[in-house]
Amino acid sequence: MEIDEEKIDDAVLALLWLTLHDGDRAWKGFDWGVMDRLHQKGLIANPAGKAKSVVLSDEGLRRSEELFRALFMRST
Fold it and tell me: For residue 26, what is the domain's CATH number?
């Protein structure tokens, strides 16, 4: 069985939306490999540093909310 890193990245990006604060910051307590990939895709600012949160780009904010709704919201 092979791990689909794209699905992992999508799930983490969705969970970043759950921890948003100050408009565009999210707690960065996720796997560093995933965070680096999200940074390389332009969805978050560089996660390296002492801050415990990371800034999401405009595209990262849009995509994280979209993924959160698709993965974790019930249909009504």
Answer: 1.10.10
Q: Record the tokens describing residue 54, joined without a space.
A: 């990371």
Per-residue pLDDT of the chain (76 residues; tens, 9 = 90+): 999 999 999 999 999 999 999 999 999 999 999 999 999 999 999 999 999 999 999 999 999 999 999 999 998 7
Rounded to an integer, what distance in angstroms lies between the CA atom of residue 56 and that of residue 31? 16
Strand spans (E) along 1-76 = 20-21, 25-27, 53-55
Token match 């100050």: residue?
22
Contact predicate 71/8, CB 8 Å = no
By residue range, what is the domain housing residue 29? Answer: 5-72
pTM of the complete model? 0.92
How many domains is the chain partitioned into structurally?
1
Quote the tokens at residue 68.
């959160």
